[in-house]
Amino acid sequence: MAGFIVRPTHEHALLDLGELWRFRHLFTVLVWRTLKVRYQQTAIGIAWAVLQPLLLAFVFTVIFGLLVQMPTDRGQPYPVFTLSGLLVWQFVAQSFQQATGSVVANSHLVTRIYFPRLLLPLAAITAALFDLLCVLGLMAVFMAWYGVAPSIGVLCFVPAVLLAAITVLGLALWLGALYVPYRDVGHLLPFMTQIWMFICPVFYPLFLLPPKYTLIYALNPIVVSVQTSRWAFAGGEPPALSMVAVSCAVAALLLVSGLWFFRRHEGRFADLV
Amino acid sequence: MSAPALRVSGLGKQYAVNELRHTGTLGARLWSIVRPPPENPALPRSIWALQDVSFEVAPGEVFGVIGRNGSGKSTLLKILARITVPSAGQAELAGRVGALLEVGTGFHPDLSGRENILLSGAILGMTPAEIRAKESAIIEFSGVGRFIDTPVKHYSSGMFMRLAFAVSAHLLCEIMLVDEVLAVGDTGFQEKCKAKIAEVAQAGGTVIFTSHDMAAVERLCRRVLVLSEGRVAYLGEAKAGIAEYWKRVLA
Q: Longest C-alpha distance within chain B, in Å?
């Protein structure tokens, strides 16, 4: 029998993989519910996942490509250039907002039933991955249209998305736990997301930045993720290895500290939410 | 006597009054460092919603927890269900715990009845295979019939409650926590619920349940715990416990 003891303070393992595995069915169902509810009762359904980045790419192309005459890494067509950035960025923006709000949004579950609370941000990020897959299809259409071939960087795309997901999870664990007692986070969230996009090379090329600042710039791991995507699908340059190292270190630090903070506070979510 | 299914010793739960007032904005917190708010002597800084509660429940027993509103019944069940951590003491639970704290937990209005059975079953810890095996029994028990593929937001509140309880009643666990569900539905449905509780106990399961329906408590439980202001007022035979309850309610 799977017995257990309830005590005031648990031994806070950073991550209880055995328990997460026991709740794997709930995880699957949470992801399925998120996707099902998001696109149910909409006229065009899952097409929204593609339409949003498509419209953004169009707006960016008009403003930055045509009006500002923004340069691109190797002079590749601006729409392909910016969509390769939006591919990663849309995933980051969506998963960051959903994962950070996940505990509060599911307060009806948190106050009534036990499960590892970590499942909530994890499910939000996983659901956002499905949208990323859809946008990948749009990326292929753009590449075919503008005659851009994928590079060897394609092999690094999955690790780059993983890096982005880890960064988002780490941040969402911190902010998601803070969101429970402090609803201020809800007001900050859209604003933070907006600022975050400006410090990622989504609509401008990485080389515009003075070279001596690139390592500081790489403190934001999404920079490396975006640059890898651009290298893979839009004929861009690969990110420098030193930048990759800095980004991976930051992402790992965010994840470990986020898990620690979240685990420390999850026992009292139900009292505060 | 065999090993208890549930052993609670010295359990307590303390709430800071500030938390209950929901004034915890980050700004207020920072401001209070600069200028601490005046102490209100009429308001205690914290209250014990539950204090020094100890009892044991044997496997196969239906155990009642009764008391007035605010006596700590729901807090006790929330701790046993691991929804919130206790501030003192501990509880040992031997087996899978199924909490039925409020019916409809996890139901999503936009999903159909059938989809909500899957969702709700997973939330209560069942595997998809277990849920599929019980699906027709759940639909039968709920009496929702042909509306099972309609989104539950179009259900009447009675249908919604019945389907929600039907899922919970079919979950597989050794210890079942039931909070006030007997207040749901018409008399016929309530009878079904009571029969289900007795059935779980007969199959060797342990049921901890709270209710204000003393007739049901007397019929289902051999022993009860009476709580008053978070403390144990009585622990023992159901009949004497119910007398104690009435004394406190009418006082």
A: 62
Burial class (CB in 10 A: 0-12, 13-18, 19+), A46: middle
Q: What is the pLDDT of residue A137?
A: 95
Count of beta carbons in the 10 Å neighbourhood of residue B131: 22
Both tokens of residue B248? Answer: 């406190």
Q: Rounded CA gap, B176 and B216, in Å?
A: 17
> Is A19 part of the contact surface with chain B (CB cutoff 8 Å)?
no
Sign of CA dihedral A241, A242, A248, A252: positive
Residue A70 tokens read as 């923004």
Per-residue pLDDT band for A64 (boundaries 50, 70, 90) equals very high
Query: Among positive and negative, which fits the CA dihedral A57, A62, A66, A69?
Result: negative
Residue B188 is which amino acid?
G
Answer whether A3 touches B (CB < 8 Å). yes
Residue with tokens 């019939």: B145
Which residues, at least 6 apart from A133, have a Cβ–Cβ distance to it below 8 Å? none
pLDDT grade for A123, boundaries at 50, 70 and 90: very high
- Burial class from Cβ neighbours inside 10 Å (0-12, 13-18, 19+) for residue B30 reads exposed
The answer to whether A184 contacts B88, with C-beta atoms less than 8 Å apart, is no
Q: How far apart are CA A172 and CA A177, in angstroms?
A: 8
- Whole-number Å distance between alpha carbons of A35 and B105: 19
The contacts of residue B30 (CB under 8 Å, 6+ apart) are: none
A 10 A CB-CB count for B144 gives 23
- A3-12, A16-25, A254-263, B139-148: the lowest-pLDDT one: A3-12
Its ipTM equals 0.76
As given in the structure block, the two tokens for residue B80 are: 């046993």
Q: What does the angle CA B142 – CA B144 – CA B148 come to, to the nearest 5 degrees?
A: 115
Query: How far apart (Å, rounded) are the C-alpha atoms in residues A179 and A187?
Result: 10
- Give backbone dihedrals phi and psi of A218, rounded to 5 degrees, phi first: -75, -5
| Cα–Cα separations (whole angstroms), residue B24 to A174, A180, B109, B122 | 17, 10, 31, 33
B94–A112 C-beta distance less than 8 A:
no
Which chain B residues are within 8 Å of A108, Cβ to Cβ? 105-106
B89/A8 touch (CB, cutoff 8 Å), yes or no:
yes
Interchain proximity B123–A110, CB inside 8 Å: no
The CA angle B233-B236-B237, to the nearest 5 degrees, is 125
Quick: pLDDT tens for A36-54: 888 887 878 788 889 999 9
Write out the two tokens for B140: 């039968």
- Integer angstrom CA distances of residue A85 from A150, A202, A213, A256: 14, 5, 20, 27
Q: Say if pTM beats, i.e. exceeds, 0.90.
A: no
